[in-house]
Design brief:
201 residues; 8 helices; globular; two-stranded antiparallel sheet; Rossmann fold
């Protein structure tokens, strides 16, 4: 079983690297690889290309990611899929702290089920993907005190309560939100400069 810094399990799912921050070691499908502490420095051109990205992200420290970004960790996606994975790698390396509203769990599970129905992922792999997601221990924020602000964003930008939840928590926390949801980004980009498009990160 591959590990990062001798503690983080990794695998390909189905093509990208999907790690577990807790290292429970239950990822079994596709090729597993061994990653030591000097993994990136030992691959030509990788260290140089990876370091600027890590440097860029350190200014965020904390960032909200919505489900449109996180689902790209588990589904093959040519549209900014690598950028989403780079955020994950930075989280694993403790260069970045990812936050999200508590509804993220349901959105990720629902997104994987929809992907299965569309033939993007096999049913037997969904449970392992879900377990891997929970192993990451992303910090989830309770929404119970933010309904007025959620309703505000729903009404002003004609967004769903799901989208509005990310906006509300990110604004209250003074933290950037990175999204891969083009509709959401287009709706708010003129007013909410702290909402970042995944393709621009």
């Amino acid at each position: 079983m591959g590990v990062i810094s001798s503690r983080i399990s990794v695998c390909y799912f189905p093509l990208p690297l999907v790690p577990s921050r807790r290292g429970r070691g239950k990822f079994t499908f596709y090729e597993t690889i061994n990653i030591g502490t000097s993994y990136f420095s030992n691959i030509p051109n990788v260290k140089d290309s990876f370091s600027p990205f890590v440097s860029l992200l350190t200014k965020f420290l904390y960032v909200y990611l919505d489900a449109s970004v996180i689902l790209k960790w588990y589904l093959t996606d040519k549209t900014y899929g690598q950028k989403a994975l780079d955020l994950l790698y930075s989280y694993i390396a403790k260069e970045l702290n990812i936050l999200s509203p508590s509804l993220l769990e349901y959105e990720v599970i629902n997104g994987l089920l929809i992907a299965q129905r569309r033939g993007r992922v096999k049913e037997e792999k969904i449970l392992t993907a879900i377990e891997g997601f929970f192993d990451l221990e992303i910090e989830l924020k309770d929404l119970s005190h933010f309904y007025p602000k959620e309703l505000h964003y729903c009404n002003v930008y004609h967004r769903s309560v799901y989208n509005a939840s990310y906006l509300a928590l990110a604004e209250v926390g003074g933290v950037s939100l990175i999204t891969g949801d083009e509709g959401l980004y287009r709706a708010v980009k003129s007013d909410l400069k702290w909402v970042k498009w995944l393709g621009d990160v």
